[in-house]
Design a protein that fits this description.
α1 crosses α2. The protein has one domain: EF-hand (Recoverin, domain 1, Orthogonal Bundle). It contains 4 helices and no strands. The radius of gyration is 13 Å and the shape is globular.
Length: about 80
């Protein structure tokens, strides 16, 4: 839990929100083992839109936590398929 919070804060800066570029860097750096690297703008836009629940063009901690939960759930499912 602490690591999830620390990662968010290391990318979100003082305002405790992720912008699109922050999210891309976080995913490509911290989740690259589980999520393909984001190479194109369309993929980043789709992910950002899906998790930006309040449509404020920033990702708050709760929205980030939902992304972490989705990635964790997908990884859990894939481990059972192997």
């Amino acid at each position: 839990m602490v690591k999830i919070i620390d990662v968010f804060h290391s990318y979100s800066g003082d305002n405790c929100k992720l912008r699109k570029g922050d999210l891309k860097e976080l995913i490509n750096t911290q989740m690259s083992t589980f999520v393909e690297q984001i190479q194109d703008t369309e993929t980043l836009d789709a992910i950002f839109t899906d998790i930006d629940e309040n449509h404020d063009q920033e990702i708050e901690f709760g929205e980030y936590a939902a992304l972490v939960a989705m990635v964790t759930s997908a990884c859990h499912s894939s481990f059972h398929k192997e």
